[in-house]
Amino acid sequence: MALDWLLQLASAALKLFIHPIFYFSFILAFIVGMFRVTRERKDFSTRIYDIYQEIRFILPSSLAIGTVLSVITIAAGLALPSGLLNFIAAVLIIFSIGGFFLLSPAWTMGAAYGIFVLSDWFDYPFIPYDNLNLNAILSVLSIVTALLVIAEGVLIRKRGHQGTSPRIETSKRGLKTAVHLARRLWLVPVFLPVPSSRPLTSFADWWPVIDTGAVSYSFVLFPFLIGFSMTVRSTLPSLAVKSTGKSVIIAGVFTLFIAILSYWIWQLSAVAVLFAALARLAIMLRHYNYEKHRSYFFTKQSKGIIIAGVLPASPARKMGLDIGEIVTKVNDVQVSSEPEFYKALQKNAAYCKLEVIGTNDQLRFVQGSIYANDHHELGLIFAPEEKEYMDDSIFTD
C-alpha cells in the first residue's frame, strides 16, 4: 500500500520534466534576462547581473514551498481534474505574455476559476471534469488559490528583494534618476491528487477529505508559475518588497479562511477567489499611491554620493558595500559626485579607504585592495547627477 503511493509519487515527479510549463519557465526567464542585460548596458555601460540571473531564482527557494503545499494538498485530498489543470497551464502561459506581475496566483487562478464557472453556466464545458461534483471542485480550486497566494507572499518577502536591477528613469520634468526593478519568476511544483481510472489505495479511511465524486485517484506534480514585478522609486528596494510580501501573505490567509468555509457553503469559493484578486490589486495600488507623492530615493545628496547598485563579485561587494549607502569620503577626500569619487580613488592605485553612511544612518569605514584587472573600477553603480524634487513621474513597469 505504501509502496503504491511511493511509486505514484515517483512517477508524477518524473513527469514534471516533460511538462511544457517546466521548460517554458526557463525560456521565459532567459528572454527576460536578455532584455534586462541590454537595458543595464544602455543605462550604465555595463551589465549588473549576467543573463542567467532570473533563471537562478526559478527553483531553489520554491522547492521548499512546493513541498509544504504538497503535504497539505495530499493530506487534505485537494483533488482537481486533469482537464482543469491543463487549462490552468494554458492560462499561465497566456498571462506571462503580459509580464511577470500578471502571474500572481490571485489573477491566474482567479481567471481559471471564472472561465471554468462561466463555461459550465453557458453549457459550453470545454474544461472537462467528467461529471464530478462541481461544487467540491470549486471549493478545492479556491483553497489551492489561497495556498498559492500565501506561497507568493512568502517568496516575495524572502527572495523578491534579492538581486534587484537598477535602471535610469526620466521624470515628467525631464530629470534622470535611478530606480530599482524587482522582477522574479518562480516555479512551484505541487503534488495534487487527480481523479483517475487507475485506483490508488488510500492509507486511511478519511482520504480524500473533499469528495469530488471520483472513485479513484492518482498523483500529478503540477508546476505552478508565480511571477512578481515591482518598481521601487522612493525607498530601499528591500523595504518596499518585504512590505509587499507581508501584505500578500495576510491577503492569502484571509482568502484561505473564506475558501475553507466554502466546504460547507460552496458559493463562498467565488467570494474567496474574488477577494484574492481584489486584495492583490489593492496591494499593487497601495504601492503606487505611496510613491506617487514622495521624492526619488536615489538622487543627488547634499553630502556624499549614493550607491544605486553593486556588481556581483566586485571589490565593492567584497568590501561589504550595499545599495542605498552613501559614500562621503574616498581616501580621506570629500566627494559629492561620481567624477570626484573616481578622482579620489586614483590617489592610491592599489588600495582605497571609504567613509560610508550605512542604511541605518551609522557612519562606518571600509577598505580594500584594488587590482588592475578589476571590472568597472570598484564595481559601484551611482545615480545620475541631476537633482530631483518631487516624484511626479509616470509610473510604468
TrEMBL record:
Keyword hit for Lyase: no
Domain PDZ: 294-360
Highest taxon of source: Bacteria
Transmembrane segments: 16-37, 57-78, 84-103, 133-156, 214-236, 248-266, 272-290
Alphabetical list of InterPro entries matching this protein: PDZ, PDZ_6, PDZ_sf
SUPFAM superfamilies in the record: PDZ domain-like
Pfam families per UniProt: PDZ_6
Key words, A-Z: Membrane, Transmembrane, Transmembrane helix
Designated name of the protein: PDZ domain-containing protein
